[in-house]
Amino acid sequence: MPRLNHLEIYKYLAKTNCRECGVQNCLALAAAVMRGEKSLADCPHVDRALVEKLGESTGPDRSEKEDWEKALEELQAEIRQTDLASLADRLGAVYDRDRLAVKCLGKDFFIDRNGNMTSECHNNRWVLVPLLNYTAHSAGLDPGRNWVPFRELNGGAVRAGLFAKRCEEPMRKLLDSHTDLFELIVDIFDGEPAGGSFDSDISVVLYPLPKVPLLISYWKKEADLDSSLSLFFDATVNENLDIGSTYILSAGLLTMFEKIALTHGRRA
Q1: What is the largest CA-CA distance in the chain?
Q2: What is the pLDDT of residue 122?
Q3: Domain chopping of the chain, boundaries
Q4: Which helix (DSSP H) or strand (DSSP E) does residue 28 occupy?
Q5: pLDDT of residue 11
Q6: Could you tell me which residues are beta bridge partners of residue 86?
Q7: CATH class as words, domain 6-58
Q8: What does each C-alpha distance from 265 to 19, 180, 187, 230, 260 come to in angstroms?
Q9: Which own/partner contact pairs does 68-73 have at CB distance under 8 Å and 24+ positions apart?
Q10: Low-confidence residues of the chain: pLDDT under 50
């Protein structure tokens, strides 16, 4: 059976948004199942026979995992051959005690000489490959706030449909229900309100990496027009990070926003 996307998984759920699975709603569970962070069996309303029938078609593509592991091994090998101290200024990082301290969303992530990562917060797995890629290959160009959509980045056109489907559209739906998340995002991730960029209702700039800013622009629903959301990147990302890592960072942000929305919802 071919691997299912989150909308196809969503069709099998009860759509009650009961939260018994541990996430905020059925759509968020479907996305988590697709990424391999949750199982269809976590939904108490799904028939166990159906779970068994669908099997691995609801998890992440094994080849994606293998590609991730291969990329990680290659990047760690590069890091071991690199003088980390010489990279600090170029990356906007700090070198101290045989480690590079690189800011990711306002938090310090540390890279040692073997390419291992530790952090002052939760050690998010999705950060590792983009962070090592940035460390090993960034040209260190300073961003100039020349915002462009994902599809205009080098290699972005090929993945633009997938990016919209798996990053922008789920983030739009999440923020439709939790518009107040923007305030939390600015506070938790050292974001910057960006005014009405592109005539949007709300815009926020985040720094997933020191020289890789990301602009989230959101337009509220009006009359017969649905809401919309777009992610923009500084044009210098072409020289500071590859397209695969840019995609991973964006998908990782969505995961973090979903967790914050869940926590925030429980406190409300």
Answers
A1: 58
A2: 62
A3: 6-58, 62-137, 147-267
A4: helix 26-35
A5: 85
A6: none
A7: mainly alpha
A8: 11, 11, 17, 24, 8
A9: 68/129, 71/129, 71/133, 71/244, 72/128, 72/129, 72/132
A10: 266-268
